[in-house]
Amino acid sequence: MCGVRRKTPLLQPLVNFRLAKTGYRATAARLGARVGTLAADAARHNIPERARTPSELQTRCARCYLSSQFHSPRQMTAAIEARTEQAPLLGWWQLVSCEVEFQASGHRAPMYDTPTNGFLVFASDGRVMTVVEALRRDEPARDPESAHGMAYAGRYRVEGQHWLTEIDAACNVGWRGAIQERWFRIESDRLHVRSGWCVSPPHGGATIRVWLVWQRPTATAA
């Protein structure tokens, strides 16, 4: 503790105050250890003694942490840019509409023949999940490809105006391991999304793409 008093005079009164007030040696030991850690960090990073304030130490330690997580400035920049691209999508979205477009005719029609309800959520840790349900028919669909509704989850990344999801769980097990690509744009509180062209067995093998509109849910909907 002698070395701590000499190197961090501004923090020592805090240790003395807690000692006098509580009388618990364990509390004093924890505070002393914290002061010692700050002092050691200051010495290791060559911070002048007069500048060894907690804010300065926190800044230096944060830089060390980032350096340990990323091997190069380019890697750090890429991570920051990825978070920046994610930001507009983060959070919950509620389904407004879901339409299918037929490539041969350009005609659009509702994806489902009954009212739909759905949510989409993007997490900051790189995971996404969506569930879309429609009112059940009189007889449940036996074929997963023609099931009424959809649900999947996985890891996503954003690249410009589209995101890619590597699916690791889905109502249709055939989707596991697949990569779903979606293009999007955001207007006000609405998220406009479209899929790529694909062959759809539930639509007689026609080539289609799906258009969805989501909006930020209201307090009552959330």
> What summary fits the major beta sheet?
8 strands, antiparallel, barrel
Strand order of the largest sheet: 1-3-4-5-6-7-8-10
Total of DSSP H or I helical runs spanning 4+ residues: 5
Task: Please estimate the helix content.
Answer: 25-40%
What does this entry look like structurally?
This protein is of the alpha+beta class and 222 residues long. It folds into two domains: 68 residues, no CATH class; 130 residues, Lipocalin (Beta Barrel). Helix content is 30%, strand content 35%. Strands 1-3-4-5-6-7-8-10 form an eight-stranded antiparallel barrel. β7 and β8 form a beta hairpin. α2 runs antiparallel to α3. The chain is elongated and about 70 Å long. The relative contact order is 0.11. The N terminus is likely disordered.
Keywords:
2 domains, 5 helices, alpha+beta, disordered N terminus, 222 residues, Lipocalin, 10 strands
Task: Summarize the helices and strands and which ones pair or pack.
Blueprint: H1 2-7, H2 12-22, H3 25-44, H4 54-69, H5 73-86, E1 91-102, E2 108-110, E3 116-122, E4 127-134, E5 149-159, E6 162-170, E7 179-187, E8 190-195, E9 198-200, E10 206-215
Antiparallel strand pairs: 1-2, 1-3, 1-10, 3-4, 4-5, 5-6, 6-7, 7-8, 8-10, 9-10
Helix pairs in contact: 2-3
